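Record 1 of the preview.
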Amino acid sequence: MVEFVKLMAQLGAPIENYVVFGTITAEQYKKFTGKDYVVPQQAQTQEPQG
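->
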């Protein structure tokens, strides 16, 4: 699976979700893309109205 993610990165596809899901590490992300992996901000929860 790691080789698949590497191929996707070479083709220019976004691979950030593979780090989120634990398929690759942040270090592998950097190796494949040349960029540091930035942890996405969690969606802010909204207070219920009413």
